[in-house]
């Protein structure tokens, strides 16, 4: 199971990914808006990666795609498939040294192409902390629509935070990715 983009491969996690996974998830900057607290001990990373390797991308629930650049793990995309198998929620994490080079956008675009074209999902949603402007900009850049703001919605790392809500419909994706027809003579 692979999704390929120009520079990246989205693949299943493998046990060899544990050390690199622990390294980028232990970075406090990377963990800032994420559900975990840095550092991530290697033993815990090994268990997590083993679980990720066993998960089924076709089954309802979370599946983590490893983001691979030339054989190196640089991040991961989380996809929570709804019970109806027609909609999903997306999350993403990228190692700090690979941020700002278009890799996260490329990975998300590649996964959206797969989800909307191959798997024919109806909708993909995402949410982020309103202070996480880089993630919000990425979601908008790849085509998500900002659908709302939930004020003081989430108790997160000792404080109430605002959540931005985003959505992307398959019809909108297919309409934007089709080439514009040439004018008729």
Automatic annotation (TrEMBL):
Q: Which SUPFAM superfamilies match?
A: Acyl-CoA N-acyltransferases (Nat)
GO terms for MF: acyltransferase activity, transferring groups other than amino-acyl groups
User: Does the keyword Metal-binding feature in the UniProt annotation?
Assistant: no
Q: Which UniProt keywords apply?
A: Transferase
What start and end residues bound the annotated signal peptide? none
The record's annotation in Pfam families points to: Acetyltransf_3
Q: Which Gene3D superfamilies match?
A: 3.40.630.30
N-acetyltransferase domain ranges (all copies): 8-171
Protein's recorded name:
Aminoglycoside 6'-N-acetyltransferase
């Amino acid at each position: 199971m692979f999704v390929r983009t120009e520079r990246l491969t989205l693949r299943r996690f493998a046990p060899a990914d544990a050390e690199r996974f622990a390294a980028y998830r232990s970075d406090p900057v990377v963990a800032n808006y994420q559900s975990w607290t840095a550092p991530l001990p290697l033993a815990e990373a090994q268990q997590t990666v083993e679980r990720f390797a066993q998960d089924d991308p076709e089954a309802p629930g979370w599946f983590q795609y490893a983001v691979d650049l030339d054989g190196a793990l640089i991040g991961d995309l989380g996809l929570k498939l709804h019970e109806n198998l027609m909609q999903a929620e997306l999350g993403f994490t990228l190692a700090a040294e690979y941020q700002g080079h278009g890799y996260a956008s490329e990975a998300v675009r590649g996964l959206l192409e797969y989800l909307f074209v191959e798997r024919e999902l109806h909708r993909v949603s995402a949410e982020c902390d309103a202070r996480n402007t880089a993630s919000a900009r990425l979601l908008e850049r790849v085509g998500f629509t900002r659908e709302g703001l939930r004020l003081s919605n989430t108790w997160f790392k000792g404080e109430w935070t605002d959540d931005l809500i985003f959505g992307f419909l398959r019809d909108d994706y297919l309409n934007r990715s089709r080439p514009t027809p040439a004018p008729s003579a």
